[in-house]
What does this fold into?
Amino acid sequence: MAQNIKDKLLKNYQKRKLWYGNNSFLECAEVFEIETARAGVKEGDDILEIGFGEGLFFDWARESGSNIIGVEINRDLYSLAKERGHTVYLGDTQEVLYDLDKKFDGIFLFDVLEHLTLEEISSLFDFFQTILGKKGKILARVPNGGSPFGRLLQNSDATHVTALTGAKIQDIAQLSGLEVKGIYNGARTKKSGVHKNWILKWIAYKVRDVIQLAIGYLYYGENIPLDPNLTIVVGHIPGKQ
It folds into this structure.
């Protein structure tokens, strides 16, 4: 019964999320600029996106001069990306890329890992360790499992399986010879997003920072990201690649 429910939810995912055409490419571009800079990706790099969804990052990366390929399990989303001329694969990441003789400078997973079990995430990281370039980085954005403000994102989607934090990703990554290089609040935009007024947005960010510092140091003795989304950058452990 549970598996049947999961299959139904996944089949209806595109419709529920109001995919392609409902998110603005220009609005998302600012997020992509921030996140790719965190991963150290530059023009001409070879990058891979897992679970590319509506393909906005694909469009942005191609226009920015990156060489990008992707994997998606949703046939409709795969077809949309294929129609727009992208190099994409349909199916399980490890299966469809197993024979691909290529190393990537960046591997991106926007809102993907929370849909997987710990075992599936660990298996995926084992595979990433073999296809990630020596100086390459993995960037994952997930609902912030260590923040009360991330709970709404995590619990508003019935297909979400695992709540994640930077520390939890670090534990999993180390099993694969990888390590967390950076933990950040999800990209904070100036020009785009729900709130368009930059002055009000700037004030909101400053208030968030004060709350974050107060909670972090009062309870944990350190500054802990508390925004709803969390961005985690992972790379090779020196000497283990």
Q: What stands out?
A: The two ends are 42 Å apart (CA to CA). The chain has one domain: 2-193+225-236. The longest helix spans residues 198-219.
